[in-house]
Write a structure and sequence with these properties.
Elements lengths: L4 E4 L9 H15 L5 H4 L7 H11 L6 H19 L11 H10 L3 E5 L5 H7 L8 E3 L12 H10 L6 E5 L2 H9 L3 E5 L10 E3 L14
Parallel strand pairs: 1-2, 1-4, 2-3, 4-5, 5-6
Bound molecules: 6-O-phosphono-alpha-D-glucopyranose and magnesium ion.
The site of 6-O-phosphono-alpha-D-glucopyranose (G6P) has 17 residues, from helix 3.
């Protein structure tokens, strides 16, 4: 199979914002009076802001009104924005720029497929926005991962068949979204968590186009 496009998740794949999401949600949990661990945070990766809050409240065994939830989600986003305002091009994870460069040299198309409504701001802050042929973010999608919508829309906008796209993901829900779209998926992170991916790499350091071969 010759691939024609790569679709990248953002948080935890191209930049380490997963940590900022964790710290912001942890502040909310602290305020509500329960413990929220980094292990708990795995469940929130790739999940929309409101979906994440629902999981957080389940962990804290709390049930809140719709109004209170809207207020808390906005509060979490303000805390998160404080972290991402400080991001610079140095926050792009190691090996990412070289790998994207190799894709460009080989005429592969590059897309972003993220649930985040802050994706464009992060791409701007880290100065990689111009590397993307298409950007699908949380403002464009109605169905959260593991629904395939975010990646299927990316392929459609690139005018490339789904099975000619490879997805890069750090979240289980994202791997499932890629597979539900009929795409291969490379997991970025640990094989223990991302066992459902077709291949898993710890990051982009030393990753090559030749690694996009699947048996
Ligand atoms: C990504 C992250 C999630 C986050 C979601 C929404 O998928 O992995 O942890 O909840 O985006 O992000 P946002 O920036 O819109 O709150
Ligand atoms: Mg992610």
């Amino acid at each position: 199979m010759t691939f024609k496009a790569c679709l990248f998740d953002l948080d935890g794949v191209l930049v380490d914002t997963a940590r900022f999401h964790y710290l912001a949600w942890k502040s909310i949990a602290d305020k509500l009076g329960f413990v929220f661990t980094e292990h708990d945070n795995e469940q929130l990766k790739g999940i929309s802001r409101m979906g994440s809050l629902d999981i957080l409240l389940e962990i804290g065994k709390l049930s809140l009104s719709k109004e209170e939830k809207v207020r808390l989600a906005a509060e979490k986003n303000l805390l998160y924005l404080n972290y991402i305002q400080l991001m610079t091009p140095d926050d792009v994870l190691p090996g990412v720029l070289d790998f994207l460069g190799e894709l460009k040299t080989n005429d592969l198309r590059i897309g972003l497929g993220s649930a985040s409504k802050n994706a464009r701001l992060i791409l701007d802050k880290t100065a990689i926005v111009n590397l993307f042929d298409v950007i699908i973010d949380g403002n464009l999608i109605t169905h959260a991962k593991p629904d395939p919508q975010v990646f299927a829309l990316g392929a459609q906008m690139l005018k490339i068949e789904n099975n000619h796209c490879v997805v890069f993901e750090d979240a289980v829900a994202g791997i499932q979204a890629a597979h539900n779209a009929g795409m291969k998926c490379i997991g970025i992170g640990s094989p223990e968590v991302l066992g459902e991916a077709d291949k898993v790499f710890p990051g982009f350091t030393n990753m090559k186009l030749a690694d996009l071969k699947f048996s």
